[in-house]
Write a structure and sequence with these properties.
The chain has 451 residues and is of the alpha/beta class. The protein is built from 18 helices and nine strands.
């Protein structure tokens, strides 16, 4: 009898070898995971050291604005934002913090509307928001509220601050649509500042006026890229909380959103366009570009686009039975002849007309049939217009905000609110007759003429 030895099949004979290979692979993966873990830990430790050192050296950062898909940027909700205020010797800058409510407005929390309450929502840029004004009580909206309550003899009138620094009417239109249901305004007051509005209007088309700072333009365009890109909002929330990252951006001569925009545009299929090149700009003073006697085509494009954006706000208000009024704030150089003559070179003055910026804003409101008051005429009639502005910062100071609120209160109680049934117990004071005479802009005349 032949005994056939039992043999293992091929699969069975190689089992120990497979186990060895799997074991080696597991060991490698464990070592790799360990290296990754230790590497991540080392990065966290180094990052924590850098962040601690940066905070000790530079302080805790605060976000001035965050990206937003609709308004391009916004103040953080229920938080603290800040504005870089230029004052002191040689215009030294310092952060000026301010609190925001749940809607991201520099205002108190919005309470439920009570029966008989008349609400005014002020839309505008940094002048309305009150940048360069420390206390909320000293801002234009808050002072206007106090004046209207006193003159109308009622506390059932509320003025809400919808100002967003560095914004243009197309952004203010988006903000209005967002907060209208929560604020329920009976009236909207639109504040224009053409020294910024025209260039800001062009930025959404990746264009800007010749005299404007390329850095500011790139920052706005970067915000547009970040706001529309995946993860942009999360990046900004984290990055603006990091002193080390903010300082890195400074060292790179970039803003925090610009770093993200320049990186993400190189990621395939991100859908983010590269930042546009910025051609060299002529040596011009940006605030007075609107005051040029002879406008160039880009200025005309900006103006026509701005008119369309204001029309959108006007049509929204009409559709929702919201009254509307407006006013334009002049640049300090337009209302301060001394600074016009002393600070500006002769070639700058020769090509420009003082007051054309504000008068152009008044004419825009007139063209759209929006009731308005001429702040330019009011300040010019008062005299010493430069004392209403911070010298280096060029925003209205507390006195300027008070004067503006006074002009608006006279205008509203004398015309607009009377038509709305908010009749004051006594006639308006005659203190700003010059403002009302030129305020409605019916003659459409001024040193600049119509654009």
């Amino acid at each position: 009898m032949t005994i056939v030895p039992l043999t293992m099949s091929g699969s069975e004979s190689t089992t120990p070898g497979k186990h060895a290979v799997v074991s080696r692979m597991k060991n490698k993966l464990i070592r790799l995971a360990g290296l990754v873990g230790w590497g991540a830990l080392a990065i966290l430790i180094v990052g924590a050291i850098l962040e601690t050192g940066a905070r000790l050296r530079f302080g805790r950062p605060l976000p001035d604005v965050l990206p937003d898909r609709e308004t391009l940027f916004r103040y953080p909700a229920n938080g603290i934002s800040y504005y870089w205020f230029a004052d002191g010797p040689q215009g030294r800058r310092r952060p000026m913090p301010f609190r925001t409510n749940a809607l991201g407005l520099r205002d108190d929390p919005v309470a439920p509307k009570i029966p008989g309450e008349f609400r005014i929502l002020m839309l505008g840029d940094s002048f309305t928001a009150g940048m360069a004004i420390e206390r909320m009580e000293d801002t234009i909206p808050r002072q206007l509220q106090a004046m209207l309550r006193q003159r109308l003899g009622t506390s059932a009138i509320t003025v809400m601050n919808g100002g967003l620094g560095n914004s243009a009417p197309y952004q203010q239109y988006a903000l209005l649509r967002r907060i209208a249901d929560a604020t329920r305004p009976d009236m909207v007051i639109l504040q224009l500042y053409l020294s910024n509005d025209l260039s800001d209007t062009l930025s959404r088309m990746d264009l800007h006026l010749r005299a404007y700072n390329p850095r500011n333009f790139i920052r706005r365009v970067s915000f547009a890229r970040v706001a529309s890109s995946p993860g942009g909002d999360a990046y900004m929330v984290l990055a603006t909380q990091s002193a080390a990252w903010c300082h890195l951006a400074t060292l790179l001569d970039m803003d925090v959103p610009e770093i993200y925009a320049r990186v993400i545009c190189r990621v395939p299929y991100s859908g983010v366009r590269p930042l546009p090149p910025v051609p060299p700009t002529p040596h011009r003073f940006w605030a007075l570009e609107v005051n040029l006697k002879a406008w160039y085509p880009l200025l005309e494009l900006a103006y026509n686009t701005l008119v369309a954006d204001v029309a959108n706000i006007q049509e929204y208000c009409a559709d929702h039975q919201i009254r509307m009024a407006g006013f334009a704030i002049p640049c300090v150089y337009s209302v301060d002849p001394d600074r016009w003559n002393q600070d500006l070179p002769e070639d700058i003055r020769r090509e420009r007309e003082p007051g054309k910026d504000a008068i152009t804003g008044d004419l825009l409101l007139e063209r759209r049939g929006i009731p308005h008051v001429s702040l330019y005429h009011a300040i010019s009639g008062r005299g010493n217009g430069g004392k209403l502005y911070h010298y280096y910062d060029m925003h209205l100071n507390e006195e300027g905000a008070r004067f503006t609120a006074d002009v608006l209160a006279d205008f509203l109680t004398g015309e607009v609110l009377r038509d709305a049934g908010m009749t004051p117990e006594s006639p308006p004071r005659p203190g700003n007759a010059s403002a009302k005479e030129g305020g409605t802009g019916h003659d459409g005349k001024g040193p600049a003429g119509e654009i």
